[in-house]
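Next up, a specimen:

>
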Amino acid sequence: MTSPQDRMSISQRIIHATLSPAHRQIADYVLDYPLRVAAMPAEDLAEIVGVSVPTVNRFARALGFSGYAQFRADLVLGYESALAPVEKLRAKPQQSVVPADVFADTLATMARNVERTRQALDLDILAQAVDAILSARRIYIIGLGSSAWHGGLLLRRLDLFSDDVRLLANIEGASFSARSLRGIKPGDLVVAIAFPRYMADTITLSKRMADAGAQVLALTDNASSPLVSHATMTLFAHVESAYFANCEASALALIEALTAAVAHASGRSMQAATELADTVLPYLHGGHSNAFRASAKPALIDDIPDDDADLS
């Protein structure tokens, strides 16, 4: 049976606890830097605050925990995705490796992620996603934080097959995306992109757009992602990474594969590729358009032979 204290957050426990001056000093640091403390052993916290390790443990007991380990475990709750890179690096063997090994291991991890993404693909959901993209009146892409880069690639690809694709990420931040809510109508599609660490604004906006009547296609990492509950359909990418919150290459591979499927299903991939080539040719280094322009220039007067000139 749980006590009322068991249901309190760390900050609530600190408010209600009777703390000594040394304990209050620790509490102030915890309140200022909860995420940092969640990744710290007791020795590090003691050194930073300027107290002893036993004092840190007594502080944890004053909050109702059995010791610092239980206190830290409670503090970590809710920060799992944010702390994942820290914990993965902490768990890695402290052995000497050379950059070439890290480079090769990272490429191998990318390959495993892409293969696991392929194996886990739900073909029915993929078909629904492709149909939703091609039939949408308007497509909104929500990609905030690092997912803005993913959204940019998705916009670049889908722009070839849809007349109205909008990326809701600019210098204005989430407020720009929120302003777009007034234009949402049934028949619109929202593609929401969120990988660890999940941006709270992406989750909130996806819910509100779904409530406004739009279909939501989620691109995320697994079924426990907070984006899933607001999505009409979801495609997953495995994004394991030893050094970062996620593997960006896996997320980009999912987008690349999805847009290739859209291109094929549209029946217009050849036409789109031709139109794009015609459009960008003048801007490509070594393109032939400059040569065409030169040959098409009107001849100068000095270049035109006189009628009386000896042409022999």
